[in-house]
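Service request form, structural biology core

Requester: graduate student, group of Dr. S.
Request type: structure prediction, single chain
Budget code: on file
Notes: please return the result as structure tokens.

Sequence provided:
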Amino acid sequence: MKTFARLGSLSLIAVTLAACMGRTASFEDEQGGAGAGETSVDTGGTSGADTSALDDTSFPDDAPWIDAPDPEDGWFVDGGPDPDDAPWWDTGSPSFDTGTPFKDTGTPIKDTGIISSDTGLKDTGTPIKDTGVDAGSLYSTCAKISVATCNSSFEACCKARGFTWDYIGCEDVSRNWCDDAVDGVFAGRTTYNGAYADACAAGWKAMTSACSPHLFDWVKNQVPCSQLFNGVVPPGGACTRSTECRAGLNEMAWCDESAKRCRALSVIPLGGNCNYFGASIKWCDKGLTCNTTTGKCVTSTPVGGSCFGADDTACGIGYSCKSGKCAVGSPPGASCMRDLECASWECDFGKCTDISVPLASKALCGGI
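Core staff response, request fulfilled:
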């Protein structure tokens, strides 16, 4: 059955499983104070003149050089020498800085309490749709699934198959699928139903613990995950990722990478409707087979029972009709010419494929 040729993508559902946060900056820039100009004064007398002539008009009380020596007083005035008695005193014409002292007239920056905003280019893309779903719940769900996936049993599985194990790397890859689904929710391509979160996590734990589960077991354990994050594109519709594809009740859905079309797969119990072909495939569970006349799942013919040729499906998946009797189908890797010779019911390039889903990989084991 060429159905399974496309199911390689199921092993992790597109590897199995940015928001850039704009940051605003606030600042306070307080700038104050004024620089005061400094004046200089020559306190000497006039050359060749009686310095006693200098009076209070030459030395105003409020001058910045008030501490200069008083010529009327003794040798020391305010700690300074008397110029009449000092032979070395500069008796030239007094001079002082009459310029206006420097004043800082700049206006201090006022703290307006307004936080600066990003005035960059406006994002003209499609706005995030308000789905009514709390983002925290979505990412909490992803964390729960990644922890369930990367368990100690899966670690043993990875190492047994020669892959490097890294717990953090496993969690990162596991979250890729879930984070992609979350992006789909915000973009309106995917719906979210948190009631399936625990069942989805339990399904992942069971499957990675099994290491290489049978395809049917894999599908049944993925059904809750397809309901947890369910796409809006029906089977047969165009798609770019699995989280866009809609799964019906008891179905898992994925995007067929080769055809870029949504597919759905379910495993049907005894008496249920079945079909082997189309966009929505319904396989009968192990021990059952699809009666192509009635379109119902019936009990398969046991090993050794009679069957009607190489193309008879009465023996059920995993078995083949050989020489008119039901027998175990050929294992993975065995040479083949017809699909139904193989236990997987798929012969690909002359070799039987494996009906199990090998979850251990370099990526999911953490050694990307």
